[in-house]
Amino acid sequence: MRSERSFCYKEEISPEKYCSKSKKYPCEPGKYYYGRGLLQSITWNEYYGAAGKHLGLPLLKDPDLVARSTEVAFKFAMWFWNRNVRPALYLGFGEITKRVDGRECSNWRRDGPNSKVKQYIEFCKMLGVTPDQGLDCF
């Protein structure tokens, strides 16, 4: 389970290893690179390695640091957001969803985008703003 319970968990409920062959950011023995922190869609050793390099943190050696430290969790999420999501903000909610977790927009998870869109529309109503036009990510 990834982010269905928005901001309730520090780690994925059913984590996978998320270790791919990488010369630049090789997996450490016994370490797993599943979602932790605020954006649990940030997975794989490549993201942990790149974020760790940018932030000056040993995230490949200690990926649990993201779950243990609120400060690191925020830095990790902001690094990912600014690198991958921010450039697409003007493209709409659907494109943002795709950039946060592309699997949400595939056949792998047909209910994912719909529940996210429903949440987004509810938040817009609570804030008294109009949802943008680009809601779909297929």
Automatic annotation (TrEMBL):
Q: Which residues form the Glycoside hydrolase family 19 catalytic domain?
A: 6-83
GO BP annotations of the record are: cell wall macromolecule catabolic process; chitin catabolic process
Pfam families, alphabetized: Glyco_hydro_19
Q: Tell me the superkingdom of the source.
A: Eukaryota
| GO MF term set | chitinase activity
CDD domains named in the record: chitinase_GH19
Which PANTHER family does its entry note? CHITINASE-RELATED, GLYCOSIDE HYDROLASE FAMILY 19 CATALYTIC DOMAIN-CONTAINING PROTEIN
Protein's UniProt name: Glycoside hydrolase family 19 catalytic domain-containing protein
